[in-house]
TrEMBL record:
<dbReference type="InterPro" id="IPR003439">
    <property type="entry name" value="ABC_transporter-like_ATP-bd"/>
</dbReference>
<dbReference type="Pfam" id="PF00005">
    <property type="entry name" value="ABC_tran"/>
</dbReference>
<dbReference type="InterPro" id="IPR017871">
    <property type="entry name" value="ABC_transporter-like_CS"/>
</dbReference>
<protein>
    <submittedName>
        <fullName>Lauroyl acyltransferase</fullName>
    </submittedName>
</protein>
<dbReference type="InterPro" id="IPR050093">
    <property type="entry name" value="ABC_SmlMolc_Importer"/>
</dbReference>
<dbReference type="GO" id="GO:0016746">
    <property type="term" value="F:acyltransferase activity"/>
</dbReference>
<dbReference type="GO" id="GO:0016887">
    <property type="term" value="F:ATP hydrolysis activity"/>
</dbReference>
<dbReference type="InterPro" id="IPR003593">
    <property type="entry name" value="AAA+_ATPase"/>
</dbReference>
<dbReference type="InterPro" id="IPR027417">
    <property type="entry name" value="P-loop_NTPase"/>
</dbReference>
<keyword id="KW-0012">Acyltransferase</keyword>
<keyword id="KW-0813">Transport</keyword>
<keyword id="KW-0547">Nucleotide-binding</keyword>
<keyword id="KW-0067">ATP-binding</keyword>
<feature type="domain" description="ABC transporter">
    <location>
        <begin position="4"/>
        <end position="241"/>
    </location>
</feature>
<keyword id="KW-0808">Transferase</keyword>
<dbReference type="GO" id="GO:0005524">
    <property type="term" value="F:ATP binding"/>
</dbReference>
Amino acid sequence: MSAVSVRRVFKTYGHTPILENVDLDIDEGQFCAIVGASGCGKSTFLRMLLAQEMPSAGEIRIDGQPPAREPGPDRGVVFQRYSVFPHLSVRRNLLLPMEFGGSRLLGRLFGPRRQELEREADRVLERIGLAHMADAWPSQLSGGMQQRLAIAQALALKPKVLLLDEPFGALDPGTRKSMHEFLLDLWRETGMTIFMVSHDLSEAFTLANRVLVFDKRRWDPHDPTAFGATVTYDFKLTEKDWEKPDVPAFGPPDAPQPAAG
Ligand SMILES: Nc1ncnc2c1ncn2[C@@H]1O[C@H](COP(=O)(O)OP(=O)(O)OP(=O)(O)O)[C@@H](O)[C@H]1O
């Protein structure tokens, strides 16, 4: 059974089709990058995996079940804009999901298990270059630092499915590279299934082992909103073809091309 199955999913807002006939099987442990033109429905697709939106038609299954409406350790999520708790220190921000993961019924943990988690949190903070800020408030961190913390927070739960919506967009190139390595290490360690929306093709092809291109198959020049997007290319990469393949430019197939000069 696929970890995630998407069967003939359509999504419409009002009368406007956004996605049409998306049909996918994602294996457990696959790292799927989702790329496509702005506004083609990539975030909408992620929101359907989170059950924040329902398909207008078709169905989505995660481990054979419809995606749960409640957030839980089965799915972690990171959005482009960092979303950490402003009233908790950096260390507490990281400990909170760890405690939640380790003690779902009992609430806060105490004793040796808690000390173990604190040591684990400190190791992660060291790893993401925030050890010196462990006792600071999020407001004292730069945007890039806050995003690193948000990513580490989502990963702390070791979710089965991780959903990333442009998670590295706001990071400087050096930080971005070290967060790429951090994510890849955790992916290899945990074998979680990852969906990552990215506008950066090289990032998509460097990190993921499957790249889904969302685009419109049909295009009405008189009404650009007449048709929704679907998966037009599905690149399954092996270690050997980790190099970026020749990917066509995004855009509707029959859209007028900009005039040269
Ligand atoms: N709640 C909503 N109600 C109505 N229209 C919406 C809603 N959410 C998204 N849309 C529209 O659906 C389309 C797809 O939006 P979405 O954010 O999924 O695109 P995207 O591919 O993630 O874009 P970007 O790359 O720019 O982030 C857009 O035209 C957007 O305006």
